[in-house]
Design brief:
- This protein has 130 residues and is mainly alpha-helical.
- Helix content is 72%, strand content 0%.
- The protein contains four helices and no strands.
- Helix 3 packs antiparallel against helix 4.
- The longest helix has 36 residues.
- The protein is elongated, with a radius of gyration of 20 Å.
């Protein structure tokens, strides 16, 4: 946050911080992806359940479990695709333009975040059925 504010203040003065956008992008991707698993386990994410109020409890329970299952499967499939991208970046040593920081560590952190979130969603599907 301090980096973003400092860059915003210095930019109009002609003294922007080199690589600020890269660092902010890397940090944002890592923090958001790693925060997904935590938000899923602590139930601090947004959930819209207005339709479940009008359904019988049994049907609502199964629909909720199905939603968790589909979402979990999506994130676990995304792990495969994002993980492949990370491996490719590692092999070719893809780096950022300004600071020459490798892409693959951040991509692997995003992969880890997606994996943990996918597992949490599958766990929530099992809990919803019980």
């Amino acid at each position: 946050m301090a980096l973003a504010v400092a860059n915003m203040i210095l930019r109009p003065l002609g003294h922007s911080i080199p690589g600020a956008y890269e660092l902010l992008g890397y940090g944002s991707a890592a923090f958001v992806a790693l925060g997904l698993g935590y938000s899923g386990s602590e139930k601090v994410h947004i959930s819209v359940d207005i339709l479940f109020r009008f359904l019988p409890r049994g049907i609502g329970k199964w629909l909720e479990a199905f939603g968790f299952l589909i979402s979990g499967a999506f994130f676990l499939f995304a792990v495969y695709g994002v993980g492949k991208l990370g491996i490719r970046y590692f092999r070719v040593n893809e780096v950022s333009e300004t600071l020459q920081i490798p892409f693959y560590p951040v991509v692997f952190l995003v992969t880890l975040g997606f994996f943990l979130f996918g597992l949490n969603l599958l766990r929530s599907a099992i809990k919803a059925i019980k």
